[in-house]
Fold:
Amino acid sequence: MFEIGNSLREARLRQQLDFTELEQQTKIRAKYLKALEDEEFDVLPAPTYVKGFLRNYADALGLEGQLYLDEYNSRFVTGEEDVPLRPRDYQRRPPTLAPRFQTRAVLLVLGAIAVVFALVIGAWKWGSSGNPQVQGINSTGPSIAKKRHHKPAAPPARLVLTATNGDSWLLVRAGGDQRFSGTLTQGHELAFTRRPNLYRRIWFNANKPQNLVAKLNGRIVPIPGAAKGKPEQLLVTPKSITKAPPAT
Structure:
């Protein structure tokens, strides 16, 4: 069990972020972000909003949003959320149309169907004689618009470091900012997510890499230098952990 509000506040202050910046980034109003840090969840419109805002805010701070959502559910959700009832006015059936109006509507629909059918038959007969070229319909020339190919966005990379064989000092940086500096004690883990819209790269150093196990997107990956206990400047990519290139 941990304090949701204090953990969010400490993460924000550690990154020297204010509510104005985070409001633009998360599209969540600043007063709701402050309410999450103060654990004043009744300020938000409904528990559904609390859950969505809590997950998005934690992810934006580089934290594990699901952990905060699970903690909120275990401590504050005691029953089913209230479902707003539909107003009675919307439950009333529309008045029955007069027979004359119904007959007129049916005739209009049948007339429209007949016109469309006649146009289809005429187009088929006209198109079968000589196969005339109609711009934008059966043209195979350069007038046909080419499909645009959009380059897919780079996938996120979720890194989880767990101290399994002993303690290890860690320094983690993301996008030029320091995200963590301290000792990861045995039996504990830290999670970081590489998001292209926030920061493109994650670097980390460990003085005892042999004590760590790294999971990348749920898959255990080797840590360069861990076998020899040699500290390295490491770079996290979407598929692996590699030695960081030398600074130029």
